[in-house]
Automatic annotation (TrEMBL):
GO terms for cellular component: cytosol. This is Superfamily II DNA or RNA helicase. One of its GO terms (molecular function) is hydrolase activity. It comes from Actinomadura citrea. Residues 189-369 form the Helicase ATP-binding domain. Residues 435-603 form the Helicase C-terminal domain. InterPro entries: DUF559 (IPR007569), Helicase/UvrB_N (IPR006935), Helicase_ATP-bd (IPR014001), Helicase_C-like (IPR001650), Helicase_Restrict-Modif_Enz (IPR050742), P-loop_NTPase (IPR027417). Pfam families: DUF559 (PF04480), Helicase_C (PF00271), ResIII (PF04851). SMART domains: DEXDc. Keywords: ATP-binding, Helicase, Hydrolase, Nucleotide-binding. SUPFAM superfamilies: P-loop containing nucleoside triphosphate hydrolases.
Length: 697
């Protein structure tokens, strides 16, 4: 950054003050005028002291810059105060210029002209005025379209307003990412037309949880319902809405609070297993502003009534469905039928559901984000792939049938073939542990390097296993290599699952790694995961990338603020598991939008973190649970293999920098198009770019 830019030398205490400097002052005058500008200048009057946003001092003129936001100057008391203040300033010899938020955003060139016309009246200040200035169109002063979709009640005292009417007045768009703001704008346009069935398709890591919370704040009238496919994603929303927890979406987004000056919504998180949804009373539901649950809780079960029976159709008017591609169609149809007038937002990273059907909603926003762009923007870690290459030509496996017959499986093609039947995978263990140990030595080295790079943040490892016994085997070997590790699977109790996750997720916890069985493969958000180890094949790119995506997000920590470019995600994998193609897809296509599962060769659709439903023909024995020995009639084992490891970054530093420069020119071209459209005699593109860089970097 150039130290002489006005945006660097003239400080602002608010977004509006910085916007004035960037879009009005910087185009109007040369940067040397900074010596004549006094921010927050005090002006004493009887019994009071005013503070000017900016005072520009010349030989003859004292120009007071007053900036009017879109919320603080609207009521009668503020109206009167502003006039009294301005008259006091004029009486003391100040020339007052007032610029509103809307004027700076929509009439930028006019504002620049007004400022220059006043400064030219002073011989000292006139010397700094730029002749024939280039005035770019502001690109970060976004009009707030949300109130148009859900207008506030007319002539209602503030004390009578509901939570959402008040929250909308405080809702800040600036902390959101560009794609989240764009999605909210698209939703506002859609709902404003009276439509209710919206879907947003956003790539892994784009921030769907934050979008869901922001959309609920923006478009709910009375009460919002957030429905997730299982406990992991439900927990992500619960954490996002827990205003007392670090990392919540309401107040601790990196860009600032989402609802500054407003109380948090009353959030009620429900669980289908063990009680709360069975025992919760209608009064508790109606006392909540947001209800978070999973689709298993909607219709109820033999043990008790579900959520749908406890609330009336008018009690819910906004519904968020996360991971809509895992749609439980019957449950969702019942949900929508129960609340027929409620606005709906379905969110997913895929265009189609896992059952092969299209998402039954109007896709109002699609966001495709190239992985290399996410890395260049500082949102994603650099990916470093470590491949274990067996020395033998093919890897041999064995399936043991219940009758004692053994069937040898040779090569990755045969292994991927049995991926069609998950029952054949649940009891896999490696007969030879040498491949696991070779991989584990590399994981241990990666962990040591990550610990040095990320200190004081504690890095974590996420393994993916084939079955429960395989997970326990990997965990045991990890501990032998000094990696504190534990398995996580559905045969564990809720208490065991919760305790294991806490030990893994908390900075004060004592687990460095978890071996999971399709529980934390999607929707799970723990940025300190910096090593992922897929020790199972994936038939679909979508499911593979969902797993890789758990560790791709940049860690936001004060100690790492100036070292984001050093953060990396180590992907340690087995060369005979058929994952090379998926990694090459990441390298070649760079899209973070996974392919629909049914388009892949094996249709290996993502599973929820809930128990997998089985048909009568494939159901386990009575009393057994998925993943247990009774559920599966076969077991496969790795017979023997050995090999070497090599590593490679998916995108090297030169390629990332080249892509960054390409995108920078595209952004300049977009700004130039807006500028040229409003100016009949625009300057050449190269000159425009030079001015923008000198003004804003």
């Amino acid at each position: 950054m150039t130290s002489g830019r006005l945006i660097d030398t003239v400080p602002g205490q608010s977004f509006l003050e910085n916007a004035f400097v960037r879009w009005v002052l910087a185009p109007a005058v040369r940067e040397a005028i900074a010596a004549h500008i006094l921010p927050q200048h005090p002006v004493p009057v009887p019994e009071h002291t005013y503070r000017l946003d900016y005072l520009i001092v010349g030989a003859r003129l004292r120009v007071a810059i007053e900036l009017d936001g879109f919320t603080h100057h609207s009521d009668r008391q503020a109206f009167v105060y502003d006039r009294v203040r301005q008259n006091d300033l004029v009486a003391r010899g100040y020339t007052v210029l007032r610029f509103s938020y809307g004027a700076i955003r929509d009439e930028t060139a006019h504002c620049v002209g007004q400022l220059q016309a006043v400064l030219r009246k002073d011989p000292v200040l006139a010397a700094y005025v730029i002749v024939d200035p280039i005035v770019p169109v502001p690109d970060d002063m976004i009009a707030n379209p949300l109130g148009l979709a859900t207008p506030p009640p007319v002539a209602v005292p503030r004390t009578a307003l509901g939570f959402y009417d008040i929250a909308r007045q405080h809702l800040a768009l600036r902390p959101l990412r560009e794609c989240q703001r764009e999605a909210l704008g698209a939703l506002a346009d859609y709902y404003r037309r009276g439509e209710i069935d919206a879907a947003c398709v956003m790539s892994v890591g784009a921030g769907k949880t934050t979008l869901g919370v922001a959309a609920a704040l923006a478009f709910t009238r009375r009460r919002a319902l957030i429905v997730t496919p299982g406990r992991v994603i439900r927990g992500t929303f619960a954490a996002a809405l827990d205003h007392k927890r670090a990392g919540n979406t309401l107040y601790t987004l990196p860009g600032g609070p989402l609802i500054p000056g407003c109380r948090p919504p009353r959030a009620l998180v429900l669980d289908s297993s063990g009680g709360p949804i069975q025992t919760v009373q209608a009064e508790e539901l109606l006392d909540a502003d947001m209800i978070v649950t999973n689709y298993h809780s909607l219709a109820g079960s033999d043990q008790g009534a579900g959520l749908l029976s406890k609330v009336s159709p008018e009690d819910i008017d906004f519904i968020v469905i996360d991971e809509a591609h895992i749609a439980a169609a019957d449950s969702y149809r019942q949900l929508f039928a129960r609340f027929p007038r409620a606005r709906r937002l379905l969110m997913s990273a895929c265009f189609s559901r896992a059952d092969g059907k299209r998402i039954t909603a109007d896709v109002v926003y699609r966001y495709r984000y190239r992985l290399i762009d996410s890395i260049a923007d500082g949102h994603a870690k650099q990916l470093n792939a470590h491949r274990f290459s067996p020395r033998v030509e093919e890897t041999a496996y064995e399936i043991r049938w219940p009758n004692g017959r053994r069937e040898q499986i040779v090569g990755k093609g045969a292994l991927l073939e049995i991926m069609r039947d998950e029952r054949k995978l649940a009891r896999i263990t490696a007969t030879s542990e040498e491949p696991i140990r070779k991989i584990m030595r590399n994981v241990r080295a990666c962990l040591s390097g990550q610990a040095k790079t990320l200190a004081p943040v504690r890095p974590r490892i996420l393994f993916a296993a084939l079955g429960q016994q395989h997970a326990e085997q990997i965990s045991r070997i990890a501990n032998e290599y000094g990696i504190a590790c534990a398995p996580l699977h559905h045969s564990m109790s809720e208490t065991e699952i919760s305790a294991t996750r806490t030990r893994f997720e908390a900075e004060s916890g004592n687990l460095e790694a978890i071996v999971q069985l399709r529980m934390l493969g999607q929707g799970y958000d723990l940025p300190p995961i910096t090593i992922v180890v897929p020790m199972r094949p994936y038939g679909s790119f979508g499911e593979f990338y969902q797993f890789i995506g758990r560790g791709i997000r940049i860690i936001q920590h004060p100690a790492l603020a100036d070292r984001t470019h050093e953060q990396r995600l180590d992907v340690v994998y087995h060369g005979e598991l058929g994952l090379d193609t998926h990694l090459e897809t990441l390298r070649a296509e760079n899209d973070m939008d996974p392919h629909p599962a049914q388009d892949d060769e094996f249709g290996d659709a993502p599973a929820t973190d809930a128990t997998v439903t089985m048909t009568a023909a494939t159901a386990p024995l009575t009393g057994s649970t998925p993943g247990s020995s009774a559920a599966i009639g076969t077991s496969a084992v790795v017979l023997w293999e050995q090999g070497d490891l090599h590593q490679q970054f998916l995108h090297d530093a030169d390629r990332i920098e080249a892509r960054r420069q390409e995108r920078e020119l595209d952004v300049f071209a977009q700004r130039y198009a807006a500028y040229a459209e409003k100016n009949p005699d625009p300057k050449p593109f190269a000159q425009f770019v030079a001015v923008i860089r000198s003004m804003h970097g």
